[in-house]
Design brief:
With about 350 residues, the chain is an alpha/beta fold. The protein has eleven helices and eight strands. Strands 2-1-3-4 form a four-stranded parallel beta sheet, with helices on both faces. A four-stranded parallel beta sheet has the order 6-5-7-8, sandwiched between helices. The two termini are about 25 Å apart.
Length: about 350
């Protein structure tokens, strides 16, 4: 009989509806926006607003957006995370021996759900669990939410496991190198006139006011990436995208406004990358072509220029991303396996 895996690695992300339909989107939004780490409003009042105002108003339009990015195999973000988990599993089997480490992925909301995955790992006999939320920059609404979901699932599964959460990896050298390489591969010229916008998901200002370190980690990540490119400060900036609700209450400046301004001053070629997203999702596959690129084009129309907008894909299931995540997990994994 084979020995049980010594360690489990669990990749976590926010999630996606189970299908691009209004009912599935409604179910997803209810779970996602009910999480106090995501929306910290008065719980009872917010529950009524969410159930009877927000979800009914958003489910049809959101489902239509999801339909535009859905694949025959399912949700892009889920498929890419599953591919990442398989690749990491194979990588660690090669490094540490077959069966010593098992890698799985789960979502905070939606499928694969974290409780089912925890129960699977429990059945396999895993006694040490490393949780890696695939958000390089930690935030209450992402990393903290993932940690809470895993903790709840472990409790519900009655699983006697030692669990550690890797809070962030924004200072990982391989992460900065991988983002920089993705830009170079897309044609970015560090020595030319190309502009670079590093766009991150916005977060509520109230989260920052209560100690969220997200903005500082975004800044550190951006500096590490542009240092890899040896890029002059005048050629790049940070923007934020995809606020929910009142835009004045979310972290700015907004990427949309930056892009329109760059187009208006005649920026000839703009590269747009989202270093905070592990894999392409609605915010990249839909929001960029439907909202952000058109903002740049509106600016170009004002200046009478054509301009060129280059959207750079997220690292996703690439070999470079597998190396990044392996480098993040490996040091602690070695310690656990050597105990």
């Amino acid at each position: 009989m084979a020995n049980p895996p010594a360690c489990g690695v669990l990749l976590m992300n926010t999630g996606t509806p189970d299908a691009p339909t209004p009912n599935a989107v409604a179910s997803y939004l209810l779970k996602f926006l009910s999480d106090p780490n995501v929306v910290s409003s008065h719980r009872l009042a917010w529950w009524f607003i969410l159930r009877f105002v927000v979800v009914p108003r958003r489910k049809e339009a959101s489902a239509e957006k999801y339909r535009t990015i859905w694949t025959p195999e399912g949700s892009p973000i889920v498929l890419q995370h599953q591919a990442l988990a398989r690749a990491l599993d194979a990588q660690f089997a090669e490094e540490f021996g077959p069966g010593r480490v098992v890698v799985r992925t789960a979502m905070n909301y939606g499928q694969p759900d974290v409780l089912s995955v925890c129960r699977e790992l429990k059945r396999m006999g895993v006694r040490e669990l490393l949780v890696l939320p695939t958000y390089p920059q930690a935030a209450n609404s992402t990393t903290k939410a993932s940690a809470a979901r895993v903790g709840e699932a472990i409790h519900r599964a009655r699983w006697n496991v030692r669990c550690e959460v890797i809070a962030n990896y924004h200072r990982s050298p391989s992460y900065a190198k991988a983002i920089a390489a993705s830009l170079l591969n897309a044609g970015f010229d560090p020595n030319g006139d190309d502009k670079l916008l590093l766009s991150f998901h916005s977060v509520p200002l109230e989260h920052l006011e209560t100690g969220d370190t997200y903005e500082r980690e975004v800044g550190a990540s951006a500096l590490a990436i542009v240092d890899e490119l040896e890029l002059d400060r005048k050629r790049w900036t940070i923007g934020y995208q995809s606020p929910f609700g009142d835009p004045s209450k979310w972290l700015q400046p907004y990427s949309r406004d930056i892009l329109e301004r760059w187009g208006a001053i005649g920026a000839d070629r703009v590269f747009f990358v989202c270093p905070g997203f592990a894999a392409d999702c609605l915010e990249t596959l839909y929001d960029i072509p439907a909202d952000l690129q058109p903002a740049y084009e509106r600016g170009c129309a004002q200046s009478g220029t054509t301009g060129s907008f280059v959207g750079v894909p997220c690292l996703g299931k690439t070999k470079a991303h597998v190396r990044v995540l392996a480098d993040v997990v490996r040091p602690r994994l070695k310690e656990l396996l050597d105990e």
